[in-house]
Amino acid sequence: MDLNEQANEVIAFELIRSEKYVNNEADDLIESLNQWIPSTTTTTTTTNLDLFLSKLKNENEYAPFGEQILSCELNGEKSTSYLINRVNQNFCDDKKFIEWYSRLETFLVFFIDAASRIAKDDPNWVIYLLYQQYKNDSG
């Protein structure tokens, strides 16, 4: 590449960096995400590392929702198993499940194309959940 080509690239770059874009502020990502994350008294988002790490300690106490209808181990590996649970129509009355599922729906919208939220007060829904269960030194 010769000096003339480099000069043309710099000029092209400068033309793109227009003054009207220089003073723009970045979007508030946390505010944008909080529009999708349900706000409850027991569930919050945080930017505090200590609070986040304290919430991770509760992960070992998690119990899957619904009735287990299938369990299997991958190629005989006892450290990893998969569970399929069914949550029947009466989930509308389970406030703890509704709160948990509302948080799960956030991931559906971001990772599944054309995903939409369900009407949680509609008793006709039957929800199937696939869990991957890990066993480690602490259980």
By DSSP (H or I, 4+ residues per run), the number of helices equals 5
Shape: extended
Distance between the termini: 60 Å
Order of helices and strands: HHHHEEHE
Low-confidence stretches: none
How many structural units, i.e. domains? 1
The quaternary state of the protein chains shown equals single chain
Structural class designation: alpha+beta
Number of strands: 3
> Helical content, roughly?
25-40%
Task: Give me the Rg, rounded.
Answer: 24 Å
Strand order of the largest sheet: 1-2-3
The largest β sheet comes out as: 3 strands, antiparallel
| Mean pLDDT across all amino acids | 76
Strand content: 15-25%
Question: What would you note in describing this structure?
Answer:
This is Histone acetyl transferase HAT1 N-terminal domain-containing protein. One of its GO terms (biological process) is subtelomeric heterochromatin formation. Belongs to the HAT1 family. GO terms for molecular function: histone acetyltransferase activity. This protein has helices at residues 3-16, 19-22, 29-34, 49-56, 95-111; strands spanning 67-73, 80-87, 127-134. It has 139 residues and is α+β, with helices and mostly antiparallel strands. The chain has one domain (32-134). Strands 1-2-3 form a three-stranded antiparallel sheet, with no helix packed on it. The longest helix is centred in the last third of the chain and has 17 residues, at 95-111. It is extended. The model has no long low-confidence stretch (mean pLDDT 76).
